[in-house]
Amino acid sequence: MHALALLAASVTVVGAVMVITRRVAVHAVLYLVVTLLSLAVILVMQGASFAAMLEVIIYAGAIMVLFVFVIMMLNLGHPDSAREKEWLRPRAWCGPGLLAAIVCAELLYCMGTFSGPARPFAPITAHDVGLSLFGRYVLMVELASFLLLAGLVSAFHIGRNRVGGN
Amino acid sequence: MTYTALTTIIFTPLVILGLATVLTWIERRLLGLWQDRHGPNRVGPGGMFQAVADGTKILFKQDWIPPFADRGVFVAAPAIGMMTVLLSFAVIPVTMGAGIAGNMNVGLLFVVGMMGLGVYAVVLAGWSSNSKYALLGGMRAAAQMISYEVFMGLSLLGVVMMAGSFNLHDIVAAQTGLWFIIPQCLGFGVFMLAGIAETHRLPFDLPEGENELGAGFHTEYSGMKFGMFFIAEYAGIVLVASLVTTLYLGGWRGPWLPAGVWFALKTGGMVGFFILLRAGLPRPRYDQLMALGWKVLLPLSLFNVMATGTILMLRASL
């Protein structure tokens, strides 16, 4: 179990690195899908199979397909690849690299100091997720639905067929 | 892992691939029957070995990758299509206790997730071919499959609410007295339509629509890579038919005959129905397909969820 978790974690990290270094947009999206899928594997190992399946269905199966769809619509080709190369010069890596190093150091420090007992393995069912969504976190759910509604209204406004010019 | 589990894992994909191959012949014979012509009847008794002949031919064809294609993605696309379909079969409970992971607690979600990933095969094939017709086919596929996934998920909610579980075993067990096709007739209709759209079969095969797009997303494919798309499509039909059987037709349940036989009979009947649809219906226009989805199927499936919930709550309060 431990070796499998390590394998999935390293696939996640390698995939994430590949996402930011690819020059062709579709390749980057594909590596992002790999990252999401290996995250789902880690979630299954932690007993959160419901969350893992939602990750596969929503992130990997729907949102990333829409990314590919948009890339296909814009038909990004070779000029774009050259521009990406321009953006990926060593100088551009300084800022993000520094920030990532800070987060990484923090993570390592936390791992070094925290040595509590491992959480007992208890599968989280859809029932538990539903109860906490509509019980403890109901305010968050309502706020998220506000946000989605706002997004929907603005998408409708932008995509509206304007009759009579303008 | 036990020895039997290992053999199941090795043999299940082989059996499904064999079934899908034979299905190509069965479909052409049935189409011939319904359209008052012969169909392939020369190779072997009744034309039975036509599938073998086709398979041999396609294996020996030149496997050509166009120089303008994105090589890696071009090769990966058919493999993704095949893999997602075969993985979905892992959670289908053929009989009580059979199947590789029939008792998975989120089995139904697993199938939906794999179908969602199956979109990549078509979309990436369309993109990586780097040709107009393939790109148009891939874009149609992305929009069509993402839309119909929504209605498929919503229509499944009714079944999940009635069974109280995502486990496919429990869903079959919940259909002891009454098959879900009767209380969930609306959901059944929506699921059937969405299933055909998800496997992009005629009448909803607009991503390949040969009279307008050449061959759509697989225009540039040849040899066994094309063969993989082809076989994956037939395996997809078997998958949707076996899902309909499990979710709405009581799975392996039935009198007198053994459980596995009932499952095979129901699935076979559903596959036959899919072929009949292909024989009988013309292809709609693309905008008609999308309008049908968002203007008819979405309200219907939402109504189905609402009605099922209301009835279940009323029954619980009585």
Automatic annotation (TrEMBL), chain A:
InterPro entries the record matches: NADH_UbQ/plastoQ_OxRdtase_su6 (IPR001457), Nuo/plastoQ_OxRdtase_6_NuoJ (IPR042106)
Membrane topology designation: Multi-pass membrane protein
Key words of the record: Cell membrane, Membrane, NAD, Quinone, Translocase, Transmembrane, Transmembrane helix
Keyword Zinc recorded: no
Enzyme nomenclature, EC number: 7.1.1.-
Any matching Pfam family: Oxidored_q3
Cell compartment(s), UniProt: Cell membrane
Top EC category: translocase
Catalytic activity entry: a quinone + NADH + 5 H(+)(in) = a quinol + NAD(+) + 4 H(+)(out)
Positions of transmembrane segments: 25-44, 56-77, 97-116, 137-158
Main location per the UniProt record: membrane
A Gene Ontology molecular function term of the record: quinone binding
Annotated GO CC locations: plasma membrane
Function text: NDH-1 shuttles electrons from NADH, via FMN and iron-sulfur (Fe-S) centers, to quinones in the respiratory chain. Couples the redox reaction to proton translocation (for every two electrons transferred, four hydrogen ions are translocated across the cytoplasmic membrane), and thus conserves the redox energy in a proton gradient.
Cited NCBIfam families: PRK06638.1-1
Family: Belongs to the complex I subunit 6 family.
Assembly mode: Composed of 13 different subunits. Subunits NuoA, H, J, K, L, M, N constitute the membrane sector of the complex.
Protein name: NADH-quinone oxidoreductase subunit J
Native source species: Komagataeibacter diospyri
Gene field: nuoJ
TrEMBL record, chain B:
Alphabetized PROSITE patterns for the sequence: COMPLEX1_ND1_1, COMPLEX1_ND1_2
Cellular component terms per the entry's GO annotation: plasma membrane
Superkingdom in the source lineage: Bacteria
InterPro entries noted in UniProt: NADH_UbQ_OxRdtase_su1/FPO, NADH_UbQ_OxRdtase_su1_CS
Stated name of the protein: NADH-quinone oxidoreductase subunit H
Function: NDH-1 shuttles electrons from NADH, via FMN and iron-sulfur (Fe-S) centers, to quinones in the respiratory chain. The immediate electron acceptor for the enzyme in this species is believed to be ubiquinone. Couples the redox reaction to proton translocation (for every two electrons transferred, four hydrogen ions are translocated across the cytoplasmic membrane), and thus conserves the redox energy in a proton gradient. This subunit may bind ubiquinone.
Assembly information from the UniProt record: NDH-1 is composed of 14 different subunits. Subunits NuoA, H, J, K, L, M, N constitute the membrane sector of the complex.
